[in-house]
Structure formats: C-alpha cells, structure tokens
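cache lookup: miss for this entity combination. No prior model stored, computing from scratch. Input as submitted by user K.M.:
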Amino acid sequence: MKFKHVLVALSMVGLVGATAFTNAEDTPKDGKTIFTEAKCEGCHSVTSLGIESKKKNPFDLSTVGKAGDAEFFVKYMNKEAEIEGKKHAMKFKGSEDDLKILAKWLSELKEEKK
Ligand code: HEC
C-alpha cells in the first residue's frame, strides 16, 4: 500500500516537473517583433524580410545595416546620432533592452533579398 503511494507521488512530481519545463523558457523578443510592436512599419518596410508598410512610398530599411553598427543604431534611435546630417523622426519609446536588440537587428539588414 505504502509503496503504491510513493509511486503515485513520484509520478505526480514528474508531471508537474514536465509541465514546468515546457513553460520554462520565456524566449526574448527578436528584432522583427520589436520593430512591429514599435510601429516602425507605419513608415518603413523591410522588403528583404517580407515586412511591408501600409504607407505609400515607405522608406525601405532592407540595406540600412550598411549605415552603421548596433551601437550606432542605439544612438540614432535615441536621436543622438545622424545619418546624412539628419536625426530620426522620433525617439524610440521602448525599453533599453529592446532598443539594443532592435539596433543589432537593424545593423544586420544588409541585403536586398535573403
Ligand atoms: C512617423 C514616421 C516614422 C516612424 C514611425 C519611424 N520612422 Fe524611421 N525614419 C522616418 C523618416 C522620415 C526617415 C528618414 C528617411 C530619409 O532619410 O529620407 C527615417 C529613417 C530611419 C532610419 C535611417 C534610414 C536611412 O538610411 O537614412 C532608420 C534606421 C529608421 N528610420 C528606423 C526606424 C525604426 C527602427 C522605427 C521604429 C522604432 C522607425 N524608424 C519608425 C520616419 C519614421
């Protein structure tokens, strides 16, 4: 009798453990998700990745990574740096962590088509 109870208890621990494991990793957001959430698509497309803006004649960012590295884009999105003498239209409003991921993602956009 007792032995059976131990078995039941053990299998329940196993079940809970398995459930916890599958829910465990909260994967960090990727650049594309942050780009979408920050509504960059309102003005920009990234046609190389299939991101289409609803705007007419959007400014495409498919090759924007040629303009600078991740560190540069953090500054640019904070309006602390310029491209061709121009600061960005608006400051990034999300968290610092999201901005770092977004900036790295932008710096890696270098090809028209992947
Ligand atoms: C209200 C419109 C608007 C929104 C929203 C917007 N941008 Fe821009 N963005 C612009 C304009 C205008 C330019 C300047 C384009 C030019 O050089 O003519 C620009 C330029 C850029 C550039 C530099 C492109 C280049 O080579 O000159 C980057 C990078 C960029 N935006 C990223 C973003 C990101 C990331 C977001 C979302 C957080 C965003 N933008 C949201 C309007 C916008």
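stored under new cache key. The pocket of heme C is lined by residues 35, 38-40, 42-44, 59, 61, 64, 67, 77, 83, 86, 88-89, 92, 102, 106 (CB under 6 Å).
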